[in-house]
Amino acid sequence: MEKEIINRIANSKLETIDLEDFYPDGNRLFFDISPFLYEGLVLREKDFREQVKTFNWQQFKNCYVALGCSTDAIIPGWAFMLVSLQLFPFSKITIVGSLTDLENTIFSEIINDLDLSSFKDKPVIIKGCSKKSIPQNVYIQLTQKLQPIAKSIMYGEACSSVPLYKKK
After folding, report:
1. What pLDDT shows up at residue 52?
2. For residue 110, is it within any domain?
3. What pLDDT does 128 receive?
4. The pLDDT of residue 6
5. Same domain, 87 and 121
6. How far is CA 168 from CA 14, 121, 150, 151, in A?
7. What is d(CA 33, CA 99) in angstroms, rounded to the nearest whole number?
8. Of 90, 112, 75, which Cα lies nearest the Cα of 29?
9. β pairing state of 160-166 and 28-32
10. Domain range holding 76?
11. Residues of the chain with pLDDT under 70
12. What local confidence, expressed as pLDDT, does residue 1 receive?
């Protein structure tokens, strides 16, 4: 007599959150301002302003943009502000920093806007493997937002998860 195989995972109340499901479309680009500097190192205000004014910013339409400088130049804060004003009509988000900083910023907004009330008093697993690049900070933010709500929090896959938190 054969026993019927029961999929306990499929029948459990376990809720899965896959951050990849929230990954927004749009290119992530790093914009290096060093070509706008004299010899890549010195910001000459008049020349800088002219280059910013005449640059084709439309190429950043619907993109996420991280601003930075690839040289050791000392850049005044207003320079990044000036560039960001030109990007504003085109880019979805503009920050000063790396592409990882950009991804953290994008997902911070997403996590802050998430309605997690459907996970109240439920066991939750945060899916760990992803084809998209999702920074570790994003997982931490999600875990912190879930902690007061969820019954338990795990990380990984349903068949091999790591327990992180259980409400007492």
Report:
1. 97
2. no
3. 83
4. 47
5. no
6. 18, 11, 11, 9
7. 15
8. 90
9. unpaired
10. 28-91
11. 1, 4-12
12. 62
| C-alpha to C-alpha distance for 161 and 140, rounded to whole angstroms | 16
Residues 124 and 160 in one domain: yes
In a domain, 49, yes or no: yes
Residue type, 105: T
Q: And the tokens for 161?
A: 């998860």
Dihedral sign computed on CA atoms, order 54, 59, 62, 63: negative
Q: Note whether 43 and 79 are within 8 A (CB).
A: yes
SS3 149: coil
Same domain, 87 and 34: yes
Domains of the chain: total: 2
The verdict on 33 and 74 lying in the same domain is yes
Helices (H), 30-168: 45-54, 77-87, 99-113, 136-146
Give the residue carrying structure tokens 């205000």.
45
Radius of gyration (C-alpha) of the chain in whole angstroms:
22
Instruction: Examine residue 147 and state whether it is found in any structural domain, yes or no.
Output: yes
Between CA 93 and CA 97 the distance in angstroms is 12
Contact partners, residue 58, CB within 8 Å, separation at least 6 = 90
**Region of residue 149 (left: phi > 0; alpha: psi -120 to 50; beta: else):** alpha
According to DSSP, the β-strands at 160-166 and 152-157 are antiparallel
